[in-house]
Write a structure and sequence with these properties.
The protein is an alpha/beta fold. The protein is built from 17 helices and 14 strands. 44% of the residues lie in helices and 13% in strands. Uridine-5'-diphosphate-xylopyranose binds next to α9.
Length: 449
């Protein structure tokens, strides 16, 4: 096998990770089948209707499909027949205990074993607990017919929603967990078109790199959020603190933005899973429990800040600018906005939400309990408070004079520390950011912690 060889690849599970992986591998020149048991989803994708909002994905999918490198199927047998390398990219949803549900992974491993007739390399792409590679191997050995050789590998993804395609094609590093040179060489060949450093480890270390990386990033966010509370108490500025810390190359400036905390489909779930996994192994990961607690508290602090400005929330019009857990996605999983809306509704506030992408999904959750608006100024009419929840571009460019004239009260809670104190001050707003002094005079209790 030459490094430049094009390989046959199948990706089982055409959700977020699977679809991006399949499309990007086709873009690298490999011959790819993306498979999913959901026939209607596959039928829609074949028509070019992408089930998720991810910049650049649709264009690359259509291009590679047209050029004959990318196919879609709902037949697992077809996928197993095609792929020398088979990625498992099915869901690993959390159980109520935080433990990852691995039943889809096990099911796919079993089905691959039953259907394969010659060597295959099975690669875990889904985020799974340590030792899942081992279990996949054992499960396959139980069901395999005859004496067929196979390898299992772990190749965790580090894709961020909103820039997943770009992250795949320009990764910081590629982690390859293998226990055979054949598996290593195949994955080297697969990724040879990418100019990224490869780190080769044993399978368990690769599995742990994924959990440790996501948990560490969550820890950075909770750390700065904890610092932001102290900063607020003494009237310092957390953004300046983060800047000063981040200039130390050992710390780095990324993921030190204080605010309403992290959400999404990965950080909350992966932190829970790492805590649970450690507990099962006999280690009480107290540090991570505190990371999770700080993150949950940030959402309560939002409510306290709104009360600082309004005292009573009943019948007050609160407008959320942003619903998705971050800009560039319509994903509401783990989004702080969901908890915040629920808390506001409990206080009988009137809630309006503006979001450029996530309103349809939000309507499925809150139906007619809240109002929805696409225009940020229209939404702000007669509002008592605007809460900036997601730093979409549209919310970065604000005519504060116009906004003040429209709102009933000129009051902004900035959950992402996006705006300039001086600008809000000059327009006469009450402005409550996270981790720095308020602009204007709050009426409520200043002690938010
Ligand atoms: C994350 C990881 O970055 C990625 O490597 C992994 O594969 C999947 O999980 P993603 O969930 O898409 O990606 O979002 P990310 O950009 O990492 O942000 C996660 C959350 O943290 C968002 O809610 C974001 O608003 C929040 N965040 C991020 C902060 O609150 N402060 C920061 O400084 C950075």
């Amino acid at each position: 096998m030459e490094l430049k060889d094009k390989l046959k690849v199948s990706v089982i599970g055409s959700g977020y990770v699977g679809l991006v992986t399949g499309v990007a591998l086709a873009e690298l020149g490999h011959s790819v089948i993306c498979m999913d048991v959901d026939e209607s989803k596959i039928a829609e994708i074949k028509k070019g209707n992408i089930p998720i909002y991810e910049p650049g994905l649709g264009e690359l999918l259509l291009k590679n499909k047209a050029e004959g490198r990318l196919k879609f199927s709902s037949s697992l047998k077809e996928a197993v027949d095609h792929g020398l390398i088979i990625f498992i990219a099915v869901g690993t949803p959390p159980k109520s205990s935080g433990e990852a549900d691995l039943s889809y992974v096990e099911n796919v491993a079993r089905e691959i074993a039953i259907n394969m007739d010659s060597y295959r390399l099975i690669v875990e792409k889904s985020t799974v607990p340590v030792e899942t590679g081992e279990r996949v191997r054992q499960a396959m050995q139980l069901y395999i017919k005859g004496d067929i050789d196979f390898d299992v590998a772990s190749n965790p993804e580090f894709l961020r929603e909103g820039s997943a395609v770009d992250d795949f094609l320009h990764p910081d590093r590629i982690v390859i967990g293998v226990d055979s040179s054949k598996a290593r060489d195949l994955l080297f060949c697969l990724y040879s078109p990418l100019a990224a450093p490869l780190i080769v480890t044993d399978i368990k270390s690769a599995e742990l790199i994924k959990h440790a990386s996501n948990s560490f990033l969550a820890l950075k966010i909770s750390f700065i959020n904890a610092v932001s509370r102290i900063s607020e108490m003494v009237g310092a500025d957390v953004d300046k603190i983060a800047e000063g810390m981040g200039m130390d190359e050992r710390i780095g400036k990324r993921f030190l933005n204080a605010g309403i905390g992290y959400g999404g489909s990965c950080f909350p779930k992966d932190v829970d899973a790492f805590i649970h996994m450690s507990e099962v192994l006999g280690y009480d990961f107290k540090l991570l429990k505190e990371v999770r607690k700080i993150n949950e508290e940030q959402r309560q602090i939002v409510l306290k800040k709104i009360k600082e400005g309004l005292w009573i929330l009943k019948d007050k019009k609160i407008v959320l600018w942003g619903a998705s857990f971050k800009p560039g996605t319509d994903d509401l999983r783990g989004a702080p906005a969901i908890d915040i809306i629920e808390a506001l509704l409990k206080e009988d506030a009137k809630v309006t939400v503006v979001d450029p992408q996530a309103l349809d999904k939000l309507k499925d959750i809150f139906k007619d309990k809240i109002s929805y608006e696409v225009d940020k100024y229209k939404a702000a009419k007669d509002a008592d408070c605007i809460l900036l929840t997601t730093e979409w571009d549209d919310f970065k460019d604000v005519d504060f004079k116009q906004l003040k004239d429209i709102m009933r009260l000129a009051f902004i809670v900035d959950g992402r520390n996006l705006y300039k104190h001086s600008e809000l001050d000059s327009h006469g707003f009450l402005y409550l950011p996270f981790g720095s002094s308020a602009v204007g005079k709050p009426i409520g209790d200043k002690k938010v912690i």
